[in-house]
Amino acid sequence: MDIPIWRKLKLQQKYAFVSTFIIGILSHGIMLFNKLSNRDDLRYMFSGGATFSSGRWMLFITEKLKNLLFQDSIYNIPTFNGFVVLFCIAISLCLLIDLFDIRSPWNCVLLSGIITSIPVAAGMFGYMFIAQFFGIALLLAVIGPYLILRSEKWHIIITGILLMTSSVGIYQSFIPIMICMFLFWLIMRISQATSKAERIMVYKKLPVIAISLTAFLTLYTAGTNFFIKLSGEELSGYKGIGSASSIPIRDYLSRAFFAYKEFFNPQPDTFYNIFPGASSILFRIAIILTIVFLIALCISIRKNTASLLFTILLSLCIPLAVNFIFVMADETYCNALMMYGYTMFFVFFVWIFEKTQLIFTPVIKRAAKYCSAVVLLLMILIFIRFDNLCYMRLTIVQSQTTRFYSTLITRMQSVPGYNASMKVAYIGNPHAAEWDTTIPEIQELNYIHVHPYFGFRQLQETEPWRIFMEIWLNFKAWEEDPNKFVSRSEIKDMPCYPNDGSIQVIDGVLVVKFQETEEEMPDNPDLNSHGKGS
């Protein structure tokens, strides 16, 4: 079948598009073709998560448009949602290849491999209930700057600004991608300018870029304030969303310094680290190669002082642009899902490698070519394997959780005097029973810190465990307020689960004691409303 749009794509774009799906399946096939859940995934099995309170007002609009199209609710369906994400990545990659004129098909395949397999993508698939909207936000974050940089027409530039605003209104963490696109485009154009007229054309684009960045941030802020007032909600303190405007300048300067520090020396064992195993060493090698290529580029334009100085100045901003998320939020709030800006570094790496090949001698050219290709290929292999390890861990966690709650339900229903209409009072929660040595923790998988694939008890925490029993184990008990029992002597004499006697019928209520507690338990506003439709 002849598809006109496909026919218009360049060969390297076709390679990148197809390889995105192939590498996507190799990296994320376990997640795409199985239903694996983490905490938030359970909680939002049939909804899209926080919107207005998290500054994600466009996410609300996108959800409503989706509901209008399909005439149903939001469903957490991995294969459909996952392939929407891969499609958005593939289209975004095709636009980046066109914008930066990356010509080698095999370089495009390597770039596709990095962008598709990087653990940030695994983090995105960890929130499968909202992953398709993240994919759309990524695509809008690329289309917006692409239109602004490729056109001189104001109606197209305004369209680009609106698309950037929409992207941030879905998920704010794609701002570094937009900044990187503008920065790298300026480096590309000014370093390739061969005449004064070409340099002037680049300089004329500077105010357009500045206006675009200012305009989309202003529109996003206005949209956030409008929908907050309309909904009656307040901006939450989550990830520092509600306090950005009150942070002192010196703190932002400190964050900028941290962004540079983290770029050149990524710290292991953090929730925002996305370079497992030897990939952190390979990333540093890629940085060194990039610096070498930048020096070669600067040498080639040394006769043009203005272009040389401008290129050096802009190049110094690359670490800040890639890690701009650390300026937007304190590092304690950051996780791997927010690190997609790193993908733009590899776009720049491939671009500058291609553009400096004409400068090198044949021997150096061949060495640089093979070294760069090996670095990227090894990183892709590490990323693919690590993605699969993340999903393996989640598979084990879900299986362990199924066993835990299946046993719990069986024991509850086996207590003398139990009947199906009986209310249940849970004293504490399963997560508190960490002394239970019957639940193993596999040490070999403890080095996986990528968000949200950490913690073997993440499905046993307070919020989602009831939902797990309802959805996956077909058990929903109407609950009694546990505070009616906490201070009673019978409860104090009971052992904690899973010990014998930890589940008893008291005054017609099935009481399950998970932990010792002397104080009243916090109110649960969602009592008896968890699960479907919550």
Offer a quick outline of the entry:
The chain is mainly alpha-helical and 534 residues long. The chain is built from 20 helices and 3 strands. The chain has helices at 4-8, 11-32, 39-43, 57-70, 78-99, 105-117, 119-125, 128-150, 154-170, 175-192, 196-231, 249-264, 279-300, 305-315, 318-322, 325-328, 342-355, 362-413, 465-473, 489-493; strands at residues 423-427, 503-506, 509-513.
Order of strands side by side in the largest beta sheet? 1-3-2
Which percent band covers the strand fraction?
under 5%
Q: How many E-type strands?
A: 3
- Categorize the overall geometry: elongated
Helix content: 55-70%
Order of H and E elements: HHHHHHHHHHHHHHHHHHEHHEE
Biggest sheet details: 3 strands, mixed
Average pLDDT figure? 87
Show unreliable segments: none
End-to-end separation: 44 Å
Number of helical stretches of at least 4 residues: 20
Structural class determined from secondary elements: mainly alpha
Rg calculated over all Cα atoms: 26 Å
Note the quaternary state here: single chain
